């Protein structure tokens, strides 16, 4: 409808004079050619605008930062392409809208003009920003992460536990292939909470086997909730709460809770 409106407006402007009215007929000289070109290009201009608006916020763009997961941006771009009915050929020219900063410079200097399809362009960006060295760096980050670090930084334990779970879910696809299994995610989560007394019962279930990463996280949430309720009840009844309360920051590993898969 917008295209039709533009064409109609063009004819209205041409009707100011007799010469203008004659020029607006399709195929009549240079003016007719210009009108036709404008009519053809408008849908593509609108599509470009819509896609640029989809990625107008900095948070929606991949810039190559360590905490950004390129496959997540690719997945979002694929959904956008489907929503806008982009053909396979159209997906490559609009890919640059997803990029910013260092990643955008890499695209302009290395990818553009060399890749022949969006699939190849995506693979080149993946190779640049998820190299073997970076995969090991991410793996070490997950292996060394401690819930106590977040608590020391000011977060309450419940928020720190939730953020730890989200971090493992987000970053696991970026570790080396050999460390992407559910067992490895269990190790990452176990290592993060080890030393908190309220986590002991959940970790003993892990030691017994037959528990998934999601199940361990859910069990830890329940254990923490019970611990918090018990602490609140103790205060309400005038019972002195021990120093190992909810926000206790462990200084050493709890040696009685072990797991055969440790040492990731």
Would you kindly provide a brief summary of this structure?
The chain is mostly helical and 264 residues long. The protein has helices at 2-14, 18-23, 29-54, 70-83, 88-91, 101-111, 118-129, 132-144, 147-152, 157-171, 182-193, 200-208, 213-236.
Q: What are the salient characteristics of this protein?
A:
62% helix; elongated; 13 helices; mainly alpha; 3 domains; disordered C terminus; 264 residues
Rg over alpha carbons: 29 Å
Which parts are unreliable, with pLDDT below 50 for 5 consecutive residues or more?
1-42, 249-264
Number of domains: 3
State the shape: elongated
Largest sheet: none
Order of helices and strands: HHHHHHHHHHHHH
Structural class: mainly alpha
Helix amount = 55-70%
Distance between the termini: 60 Å
How many helices? The count is 13
Number of strands: 0
Mean pLDDT: 79
What is the percentage of strand-forming residues? under 5%
Descriptive account of the structure:
It is a single chain. The chain is mostly helical and 264 residues long. The chain folds into 3 domains: 53 residues, no CATH class; 73 residues, no CATH class; 102 residues, no CATH class. 62% of the residues lie in helices and 0% in strands. It has 13 helices and no strands. The termini are far apart.
């Amino acid at each position: 409808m917008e295209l039709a409106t533009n064409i109609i407006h063009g004819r209205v402007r041409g009707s100011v004079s007799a010469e203008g009215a004659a020029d607006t007929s399709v195929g009549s000289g240079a003016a007719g050619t210009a009108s036709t070109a404008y009519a053809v290009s408008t849908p593509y201009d609108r599509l470009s605008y819509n896609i640029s608006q989809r990625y107008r916020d900095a948070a929606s763009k991949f810039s190559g930062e360590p905490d950004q997961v390129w496959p997540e941006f690719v997945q979002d771009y694929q959904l956008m392409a489907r929503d806008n009915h982009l053909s396979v050929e159209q997906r490559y020219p609009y890919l640059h809208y997803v990029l910013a900063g260092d990643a955008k410079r890499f695209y302009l200097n290395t990818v553009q003009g060399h890749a022949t399809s969006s699939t190849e362009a995506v693979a080149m960006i993946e190779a640049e920003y998820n190299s073997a060295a970076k995969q090991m760096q991410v793996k070490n980050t997950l292996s060394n992460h401690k819930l106590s670090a977040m608590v020391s930084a000011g977060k309450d334990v419940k928020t720190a536990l939730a953020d730890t779970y989200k971090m493992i879910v987000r970053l696991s696809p970026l570790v080396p292939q050999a460390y992407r299994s559910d067992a490895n995610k269990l190790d990452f989560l176990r290592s993060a909470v080890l030393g908190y007394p309220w986590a002991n019962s959940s970790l003993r279930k892990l030691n017994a086997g037959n528990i998934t990463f999601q199940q361990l996280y859910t069990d830890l949430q329940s254990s923490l909730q019970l611990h918090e309720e018990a602490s609140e009840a103790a205060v309400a009844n005038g019972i002195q709460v021990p120093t190992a309360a909810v926000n206790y920051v462990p200084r050493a590993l709890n040696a009685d809770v072990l797991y055969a898969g440790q040492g990731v």
